[in-house]
Amino acid sequence: MTQLFAAIDAGGALRFVGEVGRGADCGCLCPECASPLVARQGASNEWHFAHEAAQERPECGAGAANMLRRLIAEHLQARSEGPGLPLPAYRQRVAIVRALVNLHEDVQWGAQVMGAWAWQVRAAAHEAVAQARLDTGAGLQLFVSVDGEEPPAPEAEMAQLVFRCRTPPAPALRERQAALQHIEQHGELVWLHHPDTLGRVADARERLEARSRRIYGNWLALSDQAAGSAAAEHAPAPLFYGPGAPVAPEQAPRFACAPGHAPNVSFTFYRVSPTEAWLLYLLEREGPVDWRNAADKRYVLAPYPVPFDGWEHALPASVGVADLAAGLVRCTAFLNAVTYLSRCATLTRSGRDPAAFQGL
Ligand SMILES: [Zn+2]
């Protein structure tokens, strides 16, 4: 959308092209450059405002999107001061991914505004149109996003809510009432972030950790019982992906401390002693086979963050064989490695970025 459906009158109010006099009688100014505008209300063209003598500047192109954002902000402000602006429940998925587990729990809670909103209806695209305090103890920023504009990345300490809407079709942009009706019908309030002020996320994470510890405990007991090899055949397939959507392999970040790792994998970190730590991960496949579905998955252990003294002899042969050229240990079987390291590790962590294990 580039045509200007609304402009600013002499009093600074937002006016629709169908609500003003025709041509130069409209008495409106460009919201971006403040030049006088003419209202084009032709029979064939979509109605719109244009600059006198077509004196559009480059910055005027953003005018329509800014007018729509301001219209939405004014509408939300009117609702907050009149019938009310109830907020939807906040929902979040809490997940932990380890070598043997991929667990999640959905948590949700209600959050409503306490006291008055502070409105900034002329805010720019990346700025909040309103701020308020929530009854959950968090501060709230409200953004307006038109046609999929991305609001700024959430601040950890602030709750952030966005009102998403598409540009109304041209016939709905002649008059305020039709535009507002479209916004009411098609716009929605969506949470971007809410800090864990009530501790619900921490509680869920603790429950998931407890489940994870039980699963690992069961696995180690099973492995003892069946002397490893028989149990390994019946163990669940290792889960190494998530959370978060995988990106295209050529865009996935690569990490020097994990030579040859597959794109999008999770790394499991094992601290064995103050000088010995390992990264367990899946190796990238060579050739045309889809590494995600291939049955023959190859796991390795890399000394972390760099090869330490004696790393090539630190692990028993049942876990893997050192590849001196590659600087890693090739696992004989994934579950042998997990079983061995789960027993002797003093600390275990998982994540998509090995930098998170620095100093652990
Ligand atoms: Zn202009």
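^ zinc ion complex. The chain has three domains: 6-56, 66-197, 238-357. The CA atoms of residues 156 and 195 lie 6 Å apart.
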